Amino acid sequence: MEKLITNGIKISVETFYQPSYSNPVEGKFIHAYRITIENLSDLTVQLMRRHWIITDSDGIVREVEGEGIIGRQPVLEPHESHQYVSWCNLHTGLGKMVGAYEMQNIHTGELFQVDIPAFQLVAPFQLN
Whole-angstrom Cα distance, residue 30 to residue 3? Predict the structure, then answer.
């Protein structure tokens, strides 16, 4: 599990290869990931936007940006957490993701960035 704290917000990431949805012969490697966002600060914050950089092991890079996560813009009170699961399709058995959330202090309207730690996406058979 990868973890990173930025501006009082802790991001933890777990990954899971999805063999039943993948088809390596066709270059389709599906990975799920679970993200936990913990507000360690004394501020009420809202997740406004996401930005991902997804890299396959063959060097192909994709960027994904948009509002919220899974169609939501969760508000986290001090010391609350929010967890969600999403997925990523790679064209190779190895890859990585890294990114950032744009958060907003609910009381002041100030926007700030929270980094998402880089994490590996690995089909288990790629390890040996």
Answer: 22
86 and 101 Cβ atoms separated by less than 8 Å? no
> How much is the average pLDDT of 24-45?
96
Q: How confident is the model at residue 124 (pLDDT cuts 50, 70, 90)?
A: confident
Alpha-carbon distances, residue 11 vs 21, 34, 47 (angstroms): 26, 10, 12
Q: Rounded to whole angstroms, how far apart are CA atoms 66 and 76?
A: 19
For residue 55, what pLDDT is reported?
97
Buried b (16+ CB within 10 A) or exposed e, 21-60: ebeeeeeebbbebebebbbebebebebebbebbbbbbeee
Q: Binning pLDDT at 50, 70 and 90, where does residue 1 land?
A: confident
C-alpha to C-alpha distances, 96 to 34, 37, 107, 120, nearest whole angstrom: 14, 19, 35, 4
> In a 10 Å sphere around its CB, with 0-12 CB exposed, 13-18 middle and 19+ buried, how is residue 121 labelled?
buried
